[in-house]
Structures are given as C-alpha cells and as structure tokens.
Amino acid sequence: MTRQLATDAPFSQVLDLTELTTDADTARYTGVIAPTWTIGPKVHGGTMVAATAAAATRLLTETDESLAQMAPIAASTDFLGAPDPGEVEYAVRIRKKGRQICLADVDLVQNDRTLVRTAFTFGHLDSARTRWTGPDTDMPAEPVDEAFRYSDDSPMGKIVHVSRGAHMVIDPTWGEFLQGETGPPRLRLWIRPFDGDEADPRVRAAFAMMAADISPPVPMNLGHFGWSPTVQMTTYLRRVPALGWLRVIASAREVGERMFDEDHLVIDSTGAVVAQSRQLALIPAAR
C-alpha cells in the first residue's frame, strides 16, 4: 500500500493511521510521516514517539471501550535505526489490560526493518490542577522580543524542518551558541502547534509528547555541533496542555567524552507540567 507523501503536512497527519491486519497477538497499522517532521534527512525522534503512541492508543481503545479514557503516560523508546520520511508501519501488542494500568509494545517498521521499539504504560492523565510546581518553571509564558525565531533561510531552519510545521522560538539568554559563544549545557525554547492542530485536545497531548524531544542537543552550548543520535529515551505525558505556547526547558546532568544525558521539561501556558523526558545520546563525532 502506497500513500501520498506531502511535502508539508500538519502534525495531525502523523496520527492518522490505517489498519492493515489484526490477529490474536498483533495489530498492524500504516501511516505517513512527512518531511516536515524531520531533523536533517531523518524523522524526528519525538514525532516517532507520538506516532507510535497513537497506534497503541488506537488498538487499546478499540479492543476495550472501557479503557477509552486512558492515555500513554509513559514511553520507553529504543532507537535501532533512523527512519526516512514517508510510509511507516506500526506493529502493536497489548501486554496487559487493567483498570488503572495497561501495557503495550509498538515496533515502528520501515522496509521490513524494525527501527524503533517503544514500551508504553497507559493510565489516567492528571487533572489541570497542580499541587506544587518546582522552582525551575519561571520561564516567560510567551516568547520574549529578542528571541531567535526559526526561518527557512537560517542555519537552524535548514536542519530543523519541524519549524515548518509549528511555531518555534529559542530563548537567546540560554542559547549562547547562537552568538558563537559557549555556556552551560542547557536551552530554553517555545513551541506551539499551528491553529488547526491546536484546536484538538488529542493532538495537543500528542504534540506535547513530541515537544519533549524538540530542543537542539544541549552540548551545542559547549561547542559540540553535529548529529547527536539518541540511544534511549523515556517520555512522560502528564496532562493535556492548555491552549497557547508550550515552554521547553532542556538541560544535562553530565556531558562526557562519549555520551550525554538530556532532560526536557514541557510546561503549558498555565504553568502546568504537561510532559517530560530523559534521554541518553552520543556526543557528535569530532570533525
């Protein structure tokens, strides 16, 4: 089955799946990830997490309507390879069904190769109300005037094609690399889906999972530029974001000679934490 590959496509298209087959153990779906949702030539990692979550959600809710209110609250992803934009398949297996917690495994397959493997934990999202929020969430709710805005002709825009599918802005006060300087391995940015996607709470939740992997690699502030392949990533979805800008705070605990860790904290316009992630990635190879 071949589906049309649009050059530009809304994020909601990433979640649009077609069922192929379902047997006793595995359901298979196909979908399309447009070139918009890539970093360089390869599909963006957070986009793949959100897409595979959509496949797992569809099977879980279609097989048991009583679980329709559950959401993928945690995802543990291993990247075996780097998919190209275009048609992909999802093989979904339900491992456990319970009233509070469900488990599912999803393989993202392209050209008969499993390239991404994710284990999902499903549960009930938190409410909009928060009891306590940490002190590191004092980032302005909307982009500041001096913020760096991605554009098609900027060096970042030419690589981060996601900026053609969403509004993206970097906080220059944490992005020393933008001025050719060095600083701590941390970055802050704002991201917001385009109007059509923002209206749908389901898409906003998936977009928040995607945004938990949207920051440039924080070692760029230390002068390390280039592809930083993610080895493993864990993503949490806490609640459906409110309308408006998402704030993303990215930081590292340690940058080693070979590997670095990177945490993402995603906060919505109300100040609530909507998604989080932690990943282990490789330092770009020296040139």
From TrEMBL:
InterPro entries: ACOT8-like_C, Acyl-CoA_hotdog, HotDog_dom_sf, Sec_Metab_Biosynth-Assoc, TesB_ACOT8-like_N. Residues 160-283 form the Acyl-CoA thioesterase-like C-terminal domain. Residues 34-123 form the Acyl-CoA thioesterase-like N-terminal HotDog domain. Pfam families: 4HBT_3 (PF13622), 4HBT_3C (PF20789). This is Acyl-CoA thioesterase. It comes from Nocardia alba.
